[in-house]
Specification:
The chain is 0% helix and 49% strand. The protein is mostly beta strands. The N and C termini lie far apart (37 Å).
Length: 113
């Protein structure tokens, strides 16, 4: 299984980015998905989750600014990030919410002040 995240980049505070993650294999449509992030020197943290029935949950730090969505036909999960803050700077990863697969390379998001 491969999890290929993309869409990161350098953005000014207040800007927006949309991350995508294409997931190979047949588990995608039958499993909850999640976005995680890892900032320099910090542990990886859960950012957002989306269930098979598309129920969503967010970390308090991103609630109201980030939106997670999924397209089962494309085996893809998205993270729309608005009103970005410097503290959102991190490498962002997607994975299954439960029984995660090997982590991909992630995509780097850098927010300048």
């Amino acid at each position: 299984v491969q999890l290929q995240a993309s869409g990161g980049g350098l953005v000014q505070a207040g800007g927006s980015l949309r991350l995508s993650c294409v997931v190979s294999g047949s588990r995608f449509r039958l499993n909850d998905m999640a976005w995680y992030r890892q900032a320099p020197g910090k542990q990886r943290e859960l950012v957002a989750t989306i269930s098979v029935l598309r129920y969503t949950n967010y970390a308090e730090s991103v609630s109201g600014r980030f939106t997670i969505s999924r397209d089962n036909a494309k085996n893809t999960v998205y993270l729309q990030m608005n009103n970005l803050k410097p503290e959102d700077t991190a490498v962002y990863y997607c994975n299954y919410r439960w029984n995660s697969e090997s982590w991909g390379q992630g995509t780097l998001v850098t927010v300048s002040s």
